[in-house]
Amino acid sequence: MAEIRFIDTTLRDGQQSLWALNMKTGMMLAAAEQMDRAGFQSAEFFVTVMFRKLVREHKENPWDWVRLGTKRFPKTRLRWHGGLKGGFEKVPMSLLRLMMERVVGYGITLNRTSNCWNDYQSFKEELDGLRSVGMQTVVNLIYTVSPRHTDEYYAQKAAAAAAIKPYAVCFKDVGGLLTPERARALIPLVLKNVGDIPLEFHAHCNNGLAPICYLEAVKLGVKTLHTAIPPLANGSSQPSVFNVAKNLRALGYTPVVDEKVLEPVQQHFTSVARREGWPIGAPVEYDHAQYLHQIPGGMISNLRHQLKLVGMEHKIEATLEEVVRVRTDFGYPIMVTPLSQFVGSQAAINVIVGERYKEVTDQTIQYALGLWGKEGAELMDPNVKDKILNRSRAKQWIGWEPPDPSIQEVRRQFGGPGVSDEELVLRVLAGEQHVKTIRSDGLQKGYLDAKKPLLFLIEELVKKRDRNQIYLRTGDLSIDLKKMTGD
Amino acid sequence: MGDIRFVDTTLRDGHQSLWAENMTTGMMLAVAEQMDQAGFEAIELISSSHLKKCVRELKENPWDRVRLVAQKIKKTPLRLIAGRVNAFELTPQSIYQLFLDRMAANGLRESRISDEWNNFASWERKVKSARQAGLKPIVNLIYSVSPRHSDEYYAQKTREAASLPVARLCLKDPGGLLTPERTAALVPLIAQNSPGIPLELHTHCTTGLGPLCCIEAIKLGVEIVNTAIPPLANGSSNPSLFNVAQNAQVLGYTPAIDAQAMKPVQEYFTAVAKREGFPIGAPVEYDYAQYQHQVPGGMISNLRHQLRKVGMESRLEDALEEAIRVRAEFGYPIMVTPLSQFVGSQAAINVIVGERYKEVTDQTIHYALGRWGEEGGLYMDPNVKDKILNRPRGKELTKWQPPEPSIQELRRKFGGAQISDEEFLLRWLLTEEEITAMKAAGPPKEYLDARHPLITLLEELTKRKGSGMIRVKQERFSLVLEKREKSQAVE
To answer: Distance between the two ends of chain A, CA-based, in angstroms?
Structure first.
């Protein structure tokens, strides 16, 4: 039967879902060459927010990862995650365009990105921009559950996505909400309506159902699946490449991936997890509550934190219920960043203040004005919209347009003509003062090569404080470690 | 919407699935009263396989277990799982009846009845035995996947079961093979064919779908589900009480149970697991291969072991594929003990010998002769059946008739008139040496858990080898532990 191809998400969505993007460059480099040998059709390599993470938290230069990492994937086509829209921080498009030019310069010529309203009209402009710098784009078709997101909605959106001629369309189940039943209803519609544009399937395991939805999808004709390598699979991440490949083989398909090659990669990341105390992705129980509020797990802990600050932690259940109502008032946005954040924050405020929409965030006003997508303004309950906009603060935002500075203007603001393109990207995305803290001595050591068990052993042994001497002997090799005196 | 009621499986299927039945009576007694307060519809306590495990390995008298637990669980009906008394030997009806009588006398109130062929005559006999013993009979409709196990099959089997004086039916999915779609197909069909008889769902999480199937079943009108308390839920066990109760609640149903009151029980069994090195049940990934060979996980490790003994461990995949073929030729028996074992062993032999059915087990012959259910003889591929029976051993066993001895006859063989019924049942099932060793171990021990911090402290402190003396002092309390010489220690 048919060949099924895999897109690996380990280094991007895998670690973003489970390790809060905490991997240091060395940890990734150590596994890269091995991953390249597995036969992936493509591998997710970087997400724009990693600039900030690597600089601010690891004091590493993200361009090092781009430069060194791309060299270690000679066979696999790498993917950037993100596009030309800045999202939360409204990063200037000119800067993101410069970033993409540099990225293309390193040989990454494929990206995947979303519009949180599945609005392909506004997507088209972005797609053209990406194309002009040499980037091919996979556009997401995001799945969600609401009275508005009907079969007809997805049929129509699939056709609209295909109409802008992307490299591929990716049916993306961001909340892990798809069930086998919904998969059977939607995938044939989507497949039919994307026509000759290839369809990829990307789902999360939040409800434990993604591994089975993948099989349903393949049975219905999908040929490209997004998977991760354990321990960065399962949990709220993608299904495991091992699990999906094995099940596909049992069903008579030919998974185009060499799992043997990936076993050492799994071992490497498992030992990283143990050493750093990071979670091992594991399957979870089905949780029906996720279908009600659709709030990502990370956001629930955030809401709880907000409530705790005002001594109202016991109102968490009430807040989650309010989230359901606010989402309805807002016209059922897809619960992805940033829209899910707007809904969640406004719900928390409504509960804390005790009167709905008495206080609103600026983002709520912007949402009502259509600044975060015209659908927001169109679909919002008109009475709620009136209540939100009928205040002086709202007047200030009417007619506001996000600034769109040219790259020259951005450069003037961040150091002038002496600043290199890559440095400029770092300064804007990670903050100038943080860029100064990047280690001058290059990448952090320790994970640069997983094939050095002896070093690791010695490191661990010298940590043992209760022994003065350790002597190991196997065959003709012996190691003698002796404690030195204090001086 | 309706109330959802829960049958707890922790003390039976939970540790049978996950801890290889290693939960001792003492471990159960420590939380039995608490579990009795939760409002379970019933609590599963024991099945015949636990009898052997108790005596042979735990060195505990299973009858003591039943009596002691029944003294603590008084409000909630305790349930017996009553398939066969001995899974691998044919059980005379007289033994089956005595087994149920003694369970009832010691405090059990319900009997969930199985026949691995969903065979009417067997159900009828067992329902009658249960009624006679004073146990409420619940009949299992065992779920399986095969061309023979169609919707029509389950409709027919439901009608048969419903014609008996049963208290309830239970859709039992031992392999965790049920999917939401199959649940949606079967539950309404069973309900239609058993009007007025309540239906329970008992499923396993072997492919991760158990929790979802429970929810599907509840939406279709099932009001009683079998669940376990973590860490004895998930994995190859039943869904978690907490998970199903919460999902039911979210869907607008009212779980008729105080699930939160079971949190301390979860903590307790988690502490036991950590202390004893027993596994913590966790959800698993969907595994399609389970639907193909349907060989239970425990059996796969067994097959691997058999193959390894003859240096053929590399042939495991072949043996599993052969199991699929053997099952088809055997007429698609449901893959439960003992039938799954017969299929698995024969498949391993076929692979090892290199010629199919050149060598066969006695159980394969008995199976072909219909001694493990007439269906075995009826459904088996006729050519395979000929090949199996057309050998001297086949002819020999054809002539043999399974005896149906009376209790008196069996008693003469196993200990005479002076021993009690319970001792007699143990002797029928086990060897005298095993029973003697069990008795020598004394009555079930109390299981001291974290709620005895001082004892734990002492235990841990005495494990320390480095120090000759340990002194713990608090305001008005001091404790001194001193290491003695070996000779002194033996006092």
So the answer is: 69
B284 interface with A at CB cutoff 8 Å? yes
Which residues does chain A have within 8 Å of residue B181's beta carbon, measured at their own beta carbons?
A: 180-181
Query: % helix / strand / coil in chain A, to the nearest 5?
Result: 50, 10, 40
CB pairs under 8 A between A and B: 68
Six-digit token string for B291: 């639907």
- Residue of B215, B247, B285 lying closest to A283 (CB–CB): B285
What's the CA dihedral at B224, B229, B230, B232 to 10 degrees?
A: -90
Token couple for B182: 């199959």
Interface contact flag, A211 B286, Cβ < 8 Å = yes
Do you find a cis peptide bond into A338, omega within 30 degrees of 0? yes
Rounded (to 5) percent helix, strand, coil in chain B: 50, 10, 35
Q: Which of A239, A247, A292 lies closest to B288 in CB terms?
A: A247
Name the A residues in 209-238 with CB < 8 Å from any B CB. 209, 211-212, 215, 234
Question: What does residue B171 show for φ and ψ, rounded to 5 degrees?
Answer: -80, 110
Q: Is B227 left (phi over 0), alpha (psi -120 to 50) or beta?
A: beta
Q: Do B286 and A234 touch (CB under 8 A)?
A: no
B180 and A234: CB-CB below 8 Å?
Answer: no
B23 interface with A at CB cutoff 8 Å:
no
Radius of gyration of chain B (CA): 24
H helices of B414-464, in order, are 421-429, 432-440, 453-463
Is B250 at the interface with chain A, CB within 8 A? yes
pLDDT tens, position by position, for chain A (487 residues)?
799 999 999 999 999 999 999 999 999 999 999 999 999 999 999 999 999 999 999 999 999 999 999 999 999 999 999 999 866 457 899 999 999 999 999 999 999 999 999 999 989 999 999 999 999 999 999 999 999 999 999 999 999 999 999 999 999 999 999 999 999 999 999 999 999 999 999 999 999 999 999 999 999 999 999 999 999 999 999 999 999 999 999 999 999 999 999 999 999 999 999 999 999 999 999 999 888 878 776 778 788 888 998 999 899 889 999 999 999 999 999 998 889 989 999 999 999 999 999 999 999 999 999 988 899 999 999 999 999 999 999 998 888 887 889 999 999 999 888 999 999 999 999 999 999 999 877 776 666 554 555 555 566 666 666 666 767 666 666 666 666 654 4
Say yes or no: B51 contacts chain A, CB-CB below 8 A.
Answer: no
* pTM of the full structure: 0.87
Count of C-beta atoms within a 10 Å radius of residue A1: 9
Residue reference for tokens 């804390």:
A352
Distance from CA of A444 to the nearest CA of B (A): 35
Cis peptide before B211 (omega within 30 of 0): no
Among A residues 432-451, those touching chain B with beta carbons less than 8 Å apart: none
What is the Cβ-side half-sphere exposure of residue A264, based on CA atoms within 13 angstroms? 15
Probe site for chain A from B206, B250, B286, B324 (most A CB atoms < 10 A): B286
Measured between CA atoms, the residue of chain A closest to residue B248 is A288
Non-local (6+) Cβ contacts of B125 within 8 A are B93, B96
DSSP structural state of residue B314: G
Number of other residues whose CB lies within 10 A of the CB of residue A463: 7
3-state secondary structure of A190: helix
Min Cα distance B393 → chain A (Å) is 38
Q: How far apart are CA A410 and CA A424, in angstroms?
A: 9
| Dihedral sign (CA A293, A296, A298, A303) | negative
For testing the chain A interface, which of B1, B284, B285 should be mutated: the one with the most A CBs within 10 Å? B285
The C-alpha atoms of residue B62 and residue B72 are separated, in whole angstroms, by 16
